[in-house]
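User: Please fill in residues for this 416-position structure.
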């Protein structure tokens, strides 16, 4: 049952024909308008009535965002936050209700005077993260992404999202929507771009596969607006991070994902957008500086730590192994242990091929390589790869095993 006072307000508000008349109604009813809205969404069980009320509220705030003050004033009187009126709706089964609540809460959190904090912020961001992670299985993903584009203007909201591993959900959504058209991909990368204006958020982006994911888009997408936002995001990663070591890691990830080569290809497109051209030139210049100062072992170590081994030049260079094989035993054999762990845990055939090859080269060029590899179970891990289905993995595992045996024969005094 709808109270008479709530009914009177809704009817009067719906009869208003333009923004001026609606503002007049709201000014006349004041807090009674908010009480009517709250009663209708919290005390009525039928979803269609809740949908109807939430749509009115969302339209009301979209028409004039300063109307968030109505909810803030009533919340102050009730000693609660304005967000508490709507957060409970995020667990409803009706997905339209959930996503119109996202829209309302976003407007209040960004354009209102109050800032969402504490448990409320954690719950709200967690709900958004869960919604974006569902990707194409979420019918309202466009609404979720639009909310994020608005929310990430506020620094505290950026931090709240990335601190709960939000990048993982964004990159997952970017992959799952790759066949849904360029617009949704543009909007997801736009969210990443906004996040990387914060230094802490930019640093956290390097711990996942964000660079790898957007680099793949850069190599395949033909839409200029998508290319522009990807390049701008990569630029942010280099300009937002102050720590020289972390910035170097960002540049290394870009180099390993062949960003310089992709930028060279893009230059042939003859873009007219001056900002895009400037960002591309900035990236090329900065990455070239890093290439000049990098040693091959820096790049190799970065590949190893990120678990992204591929056939970059150091792997097949005898000079590299002659000069650097001993470094795998530094710091209690840290890098050698990582290499052997890849043989045991990785499911990527390319990583397995390169790791098997590198262990064989380590044995070839380190005087006690065989002893070190066997000490940490590398021999057994190599032998297990001889039984996998992938023929390339079996081939490189066989070569690695042969190098282990040859080294053993050398220890016995044979001149092999």
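Assistant: Residues filled in for all 416 positions:
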């Amino acid at each position: 049952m709808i109270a008479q006072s709530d009914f009177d307000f809704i009817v009067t508000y719906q009869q208003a024909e333009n923004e001026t008349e609606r503002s007049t109604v709201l000014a006349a009813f004041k807090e009674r308008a908010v009480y009517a809205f709250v009663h209708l969404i919290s005390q009525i069980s039928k979803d269609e009535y809740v949908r109807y009320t939430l749509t009115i509220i969302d339209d009301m705030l979209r028409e004039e965002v300063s109307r968030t003050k109505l909810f803030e004033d009533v919340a102050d009187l009730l000693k609660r936050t304005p967000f508490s009126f709507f957060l409970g709706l995020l667990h409803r089964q009706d997905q339209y209700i959930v996503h119109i609540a996202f829209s309302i809460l976003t407007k209040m959190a960004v354009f209102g005077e109050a800032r969402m904090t504490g448990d409320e912020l954690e719950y709200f961001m967690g709900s958004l993260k869960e919604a974006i992670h569902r990707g194409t299985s979420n019918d309202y993903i466009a609404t979720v992404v639009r909310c994020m584009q608005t929310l990430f203007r506020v620094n505290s909201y950026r931090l709240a999202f990335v601190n709960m591993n939000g990048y993982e959900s964004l990159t997952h959504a970017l992959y799952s929507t790759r066949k849904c058209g360029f617009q949704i991909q543009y909007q997801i990368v736009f969210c990443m771009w906004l996040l990387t204006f914060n230094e802490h958020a930019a640093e956290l982006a390097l711990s996942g596969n964000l660079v790898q994911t957007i680099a793949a888009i850069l190599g395949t997408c033909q839409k200029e607006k998508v290319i522009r936002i990807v390049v701008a995001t990569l630029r942010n990663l280099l300009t937002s991070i102050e720590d020289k070591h972390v910035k170097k890691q960002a540049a290394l990830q870009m180099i390993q994902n062949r960003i310089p080569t992709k930028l060279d290809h893009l230059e042939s497109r003859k873009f007219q957008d001056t900002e895009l051209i400037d960002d591309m030139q900035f990236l090329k210049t900065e990455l070239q500086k890093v290439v000049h100062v990098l040693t091959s072992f820096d790049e190799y170590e970065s590949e190893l730590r990120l678990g992204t081994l591929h056939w970059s030049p150091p792997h097949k260079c005898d000079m590299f192994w002659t000069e650097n094989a001993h470094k795998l035993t530094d710091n209690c054999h840290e890098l050698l242990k990582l290499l052997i762990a890849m043989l045991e845990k990785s499911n990527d055939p390319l990583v397995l091929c390169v790791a098997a090859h590198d262990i064989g080269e380590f044995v070839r060029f380190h005087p006690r390589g065989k002893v070190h590899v066997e000490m940490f179970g590398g021999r057994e891990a190599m032998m297990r790869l001889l039984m996998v289905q992938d023929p390339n993995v079996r081939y490189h595992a066989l070569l690695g095993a042969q190098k282990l045996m040859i080294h053993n024969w050398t220890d016995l005094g044979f001149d092999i």
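For context: The mean pLDDT is 89.
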